[in-house]
Amino acid sequence: MSFDVNAIRDQFPILQRQVHGKPLVYFDNAASVQKPQKVIDCINHTLTQSYANVHRGLHTLSNEVTERYEQARKTCARYLGADEDEIIFTMGGTDAINLVSYSWGMENIGEGDEIILSLMEHHSNIVPWHFLRERKGAVLKWLKVDDNGAIDMNQYQSLLSDKTRLVAITGLSNVLGAAPDIKAMAALAHGAGAKILVDGCQKSVHGAVDVKALGADFYVLTGHKIYGPSGIGALYGKREILQDMTPFRGGGEMIDCVTQDIVTYNDPPHRFEAGTPPIMEAIAMGTALEWMMAQDIEGLQTHEKALTDYAMGKLSGLNWISLQGKGQEGKGPIVSFTMEGAHPHDVATIIDQMGVAVRAGHHCCQPLMQHLGVDSTVRASFAAYNTEQEIDIFIEALMKARNILS
Ligand SMILES: Cc1ncc(COP(=O)(O)O)c(C=O)c1O
Fold first, then answer.
1. Same domain, 193 and 110
2. CATH code (residue 358)
3. 174 CB less than 6 Å from ligand 1?
């Protein structure tokens, strides 16, 4: 098996469409990726042939769909190197982190307890910890990052203490593409008696993960960035931690027994999946993960790195572009920059007229923007199906935008 970008592109029908009369160049992958035919077929098949509610019925369709839903959990466990009872389906990355904040944090974090998080976290991995600051008196301790997103491990060690309860850290920055050394950070967190939550929403997109080797206590992924649908994600939690956690949402499926006086709870992971789950979405995320695992992952990573290097090389040659993050070991395929004298929103709007889709804004990372001294950036992020030719079109589009805006 070898990586063939044209064979990959053929599997993504949306890449055939035009935008403003130009071929689509989709570089907004860190926001959400496009879906391969296999995932689209799975959604179609589920809704037209194999749909019912899960875990409830005694009829063929319900049994069939329950089997497929639980199969998706097994696939997700395989992708993350976990056991299936350690995988909770959530409504996405944000939902997974909120689950930890409510179910684990509300009970394990009190007045004066400390949570360490980095300045490059997405708001999804900041605001749920602010809730604990506001509601439980927790103290947030901020890990600085340099211009490339590198973490100062000395500062990290100096922040860790017997007051630290949790380290909440991204696996890959959605702005700078920087990838912290999670294994080293987890070992140090555990040495201080703290737990570590890894926001893997960006990192997990670029290859399977081994949560046990990393030493993560919690690991989060999201379906819509990993070639699957939106409205679905997964939370990995170590079995012994999940077993001690009380549920955050109450309702059907998560109980063992309900009477007028008491309620007892189901075992994990079902304890944390109240109500009818995103059934089709979970099954399709399983298909997306199967699709990923069937690819030449090394080839894919080499391809994405080559695209990133190519784009960084081209952008560095333009003296009216300022790159945010010049790159570091393990950088993901995400490039952020500003254009001299132009607002990022204007740049994105103009290049959209040439068929190029990028993201512009603060990328849900306001503390990082404040740290970098910018309000917003333009972000181009690459996926398996992108090509160097598309980067050439993007650079040409930027040059035209520069002429219009200067
Ligand atoms: C690093 C990171 N964490 C969390 C999220 C939120 O994930 P979701 O959209 O599934 O809620 C995102 C989405 O942009 C992200 O980039």
1. yes
2. 3.90.1150.10
3. yes
Please report the atom of ligand 1 found closest to the CA of residue 364. 14
124 C-beta closer than 6 A to ligand 1: yes
Bridge partners (DSSP) of residue 323 are 337
Pair (280, 315) in one structural domain: no
Assigned domain for 39 exists = no
Ligand 1 contact, 122 CB (< 6 A): yes
CA-closest candidate to residue 72, choices 387, 335, 290, 246: 290
Alpha-carbon distance of 378 to 336, in angstroms, equals 6
Query: Which atom of ligand 1 is least distant from the CA of 222?
Result: 10
Q: 315 and 281 in one domain?
A: no
Taking only the tens place, the pLDDT of each residue in 126-143 is 999 999 999 999 999 999
Q: Does 59 map to a domain?
A: yes
Q: Is 86 in the pocket of ligand 1 (CB under 6 A)?
A: no
pTM over cut 0.70: yes
In this structure, are residues 397 and 354 in contact, taking their beta carbons and an 8 Å threshold?
A: yes
Same domain, residue pair 226 and 139:
yes
* Cβ neighbours of 23 (radius 10 Å): 15
Per-residue pLDDT tens over the stretch 62-102: 999 999 999 999 999 999 999 999 999 999 999 999 999 99
Q: Quick: pLDDT tens for 291-347.
A: 999 999 999 999 999 999 999 999 999 999 999 988 777 899 999 999 999 999 999
Question: 353 and 222, same structural domain?
Answer: no
Residue where a domain terminates, one of 238, 262, 293: 293
3-state secondary structure 169-232: EECCCCCCCCCCCHHHHHHHHHHCCCEEEEECCCHHHHCCCCHHHHCCCEEEEEHHHCCCCCCC
Q: Are residues 287 and 144 located together in one domain of the fold?
A: yes
Q: By residue range, what is the domain housing residue 79?
A: 50-293
Q: Which of 259, 278, 293 is the last residue of a domain?
A: 293
State how many domains the chain has. Answer: 2
Show which residues are catalytic. 364
Same domain, 19 and 66: no
Return the best residue to mutate from 169, 174, 218, 235 for the ligand 1 pocket (most ligand atoms within 8 A of CB).
174
